[in-house]
Design goal:
Elements: E1 2-6, H1 17-23, E2 27-33, H2 34-39, E3 48-52, H3 68-89, E4 96-100, H4 109-112, E5 117-121, H5 145-162, E6 165-168, H6 171-175, H7 179-182, E7 185-187, E8 204-206, E9 213-215, E10 220-227, H8 234-247, E11 252-258, H9 273-281, E12 290-293, H10 298-307, E13 310-313, H11 322-329, E14 334-337, H12 342-345, E15 353-355, H13 360-372, H14 378-391, H15 394-409
Parallel strand pairs: 1-2, 1-4, 2-3, 4-5, 5-6, 6-7, 10-11, 10-13, 11-12, 13-14, 14-15
Antiparallel strand pairs: 8-9
Helix pairs in contact: 3-5, 8-9, 8-13, 11-14
């Protein structure tokens, strides 16, 4: 079987399935934007990786504000189509093409490879209500939001119309898809390596750049995200910190993330959400006990989760972060926002504690409870891990289903009865 994976930040969500197919003797090719592919060379053993180059923005026509996302997606679709045509001319004609639905990459792949089966990773479909848009009144969406969302969805619809199948990570993300396409899309999470991410009583972490060595004996409060931004509740968590420190003077707060913006409104040049938050509440904080870490090696990150006494996860109704499931797999005491799709995984009083996304006071209260009465929540932490092991384990559940779906598309196996979503 020949399989082509397309993701601008390859391997992205294909970081497990692509090398597993290659290890099984299949011919596997990964295509992504060249700088991203180069940065991650070696991450997918056995997979041949190729990169495409996007032309500089200044050479492209400058559309109006509403049309920028669509114009950008169409430009990328053309670049990827030409790269795919070169792959075909080189003799690689895939049986299955797996592509992320975002950024426009998948739009023309079925036209270049009409004989291939196209499977989309359907991460998110935009909705004007009941989702991220309009959720946070502090960051209003603007008067043209419905028009903008329709144009943002246009390349997604073009890809969906051409695809043979798809998958998405959670039932809530599946529910955002248009009804006419949802039957083609399976709910399969990328999976968590629960052997690698597991509780460890003797874990410790040397904080980079300091002489501090933290263990589970400390009162470590953790918050981890790709970037510090409103979509992941960073502004709310920062407002909770003064009260957390007042209630828990021994606590050390460790925040891991970057200062770029992944999903939230862009700030003026030179500004960051972290600087804005520190300007608002920094004077109320004991900064000797607040530690910002821009990046951690994965093993260090796991160690941080293992020593955490309280892990706070906040998000708009949006794509669920891997970090929530990783924190649960590590046996953390998870304090999570009462937002979809969090409620699909982290259930209040069962395997986590839910809080109002917009309530710094409630977040601080629950952090204090976690630090004051850790033994009271031991079973809840165990159930958090069990939730991930039983429904989201990489080797036992998620990866086998991903592989089976690809093999079915290639005609290597008969379609199986759909497994229940986790």
């Amino acid at each position: 079987m020949k399989v082509l994976f397309v993701h601008q930040n390859f391997p992205g969500q294909y970081r497990h399935v692509a090398p597993r197919l290659a290890a099984g003797g299949h011919a596997v090719l990964g295509l992504g934007e060249e700088p991203n592919v180069r940065r991650q060379l070696g991450a997918t053993p056995g997979v041949k990786c190729l990169g495409y180059r996007m032309p500089p923005e200044e050479v492209a026509a400058k559309p109006g504000v509403l049309g920028r996302s669509l114009e950008s997606a169409l430009r990328r679709a053309g670049v990827v189509a030409r790269a795919a045509a070169r792959i075909r001319a080189g003799g690689f004609v895939p049986d299955v093409v797996c592509a992320h639905i975002g950024w426009g990459e998948a739009i023309f792949l079925k036209d270049v490879f009409p004989e291939a089966q196209l499977q989309l990773y359907c991460e998110f479909f935009y909705r004007p209500e009941g989702s991220d848009v309009g959720f946070d009144p502090e960051f209003p969406s603007g008067k043209d939001v419905r028009l903008r969302l329709r144009l943002m969805n246009a390349p997604l619809l073009l890809a969906l119309q051409a695809c043979d199948a798809g998958l998405t990570a959670t039932r809530w993300q599946h529910a955002q898809l248009p009804a006419e396409f949802s039957a083609r899309v399976s709910v399969v999470h990328e999976g968590i390596d629960t052997q690698r991410v597991a509780p460890r009583a003797d874990a410790e972490l040397q904080l980079p750049g300091t002489g501090l060595r933290l263990t589970a004996r400390e009162q470590v409060v953790t918050y981890t995200t790709r970037n510090f931004e409103p979509y992941r509740g960073f502004h709310i968590f920062m407002r909770a910190l003064p009260e957390i420190q007042r209630r828990c003077p021994r606590a050390r707060i460790v925040l891991v993330g970057g200062d770029r913006v992944s999903y939230s409104p862009r700030l003026p040049e030179g500004q960051t959400y972290r600087a804005r938050a520190l300007k608002e509440v920094g004077h109320k904080l004991d900064m000797d006990r607040v530690h910002f870490l821009p990046w951690l090696a994965y093993e260090q990150y796991v160690s941080l989760l293992q020593i955490s006494a309280a892990h706070v996860y906040l998000t708009y109704p949006f794509v669920l972060s891997w970090s929530l499931l990783e924190s649960m797999a590590a046996g953390c005491h998870v304090i999570a926002s009462r937002t979809a799709p969090v409620e699909e995984v982290a259930r209040d009083g069962e395997n986590a504690v839910q809080v109002d996304f917009f309530s710094p006071q409630e977040i601080a209260q629950q952090v204090e409870r976690a630090l004051r009465e850790p033994e009271k929540f031991r079973e809840m932490r165990q159930r958090a891990r069990e939730t991930v092991v039983q429904g989201y384990d990489l080797e036992r559940h998620c990866l086998p289903r991903q592989l089976a779906l690809i093999e079915q598309l290639a005609g290597l196996s008969a379609p199986a009865a759909p497994a229940p979503a986790p």
